[in-house]
Design goal:
Length: about 260
Amino acid sequence: MLKLLLLYGSYFKVNIKKLVEYKADFIFNLISVLVWVSIGLINIGIIFDKLQLLKGWSLPEIGLLYGMWSFTFAIYNAFGNGILDIEKHVVTGSMDVLLTKPISPLIQIVCSRINTMGVGFLVFGVFVMIISAYNINYTWNVLKILYLIVTSITGGLLIFATYLILGSLAFWLLHSTSAIRIGYDIHKFAQYPLSIYGDGIKIILVTIFPYAFTNYYPIAFLLGKVPVFYGILSPIFCIIIFILSLRIWRLGLKRYEGTGS
């Protein structure tokens, strides 16, 4: 883990140097992200201009949910964009180059494409969560805040894990970009309460693409909208899926090595 952090730090410094050289691009990307996520929040505000509650959720409560969605997605953006290149490495054979190096191929992939746009999602997410939490008629304490932080991190791990599983499909199917795009589109449904959707979407968000565990269940638990079981299960489930994704990645990598031989 320490080696990963040091390596990531080195790559991050390189990216910072690039930002200094191309400040305009960084500012433009940051503004683009803030505008994109702000539009989503404005859409929520338009809905609540007509309704006081949406399936039992107030505007500040959905704001808290939306802010956590942005925060967890920022974690993926910081570490997971290299997953998009797995297909390229498999199809072109450049995975062989990664395998010859003394560092794990996954670590190399993670550090190869550090997306500074995640800063925008992080800043926006934290800001919206703080504003929303302040406007909710709810008593916060250290344990609840700590739970929110922990589940935000584990939620980010689950998003990373989901995309890693989808990206690893390239080892079997040679192509995975389309699957990742589907996962990306479905992730947008997690911006809103699970309770507003029909049974089909609910099943997808709890099982096939379990994004409900990244923000909905933790927030709903804190607000007393779901049983305690879901609040306890959420971070544990996210960690389990993360471990499973690493296992699937290793299985795929072994298959690639076998094909190469």
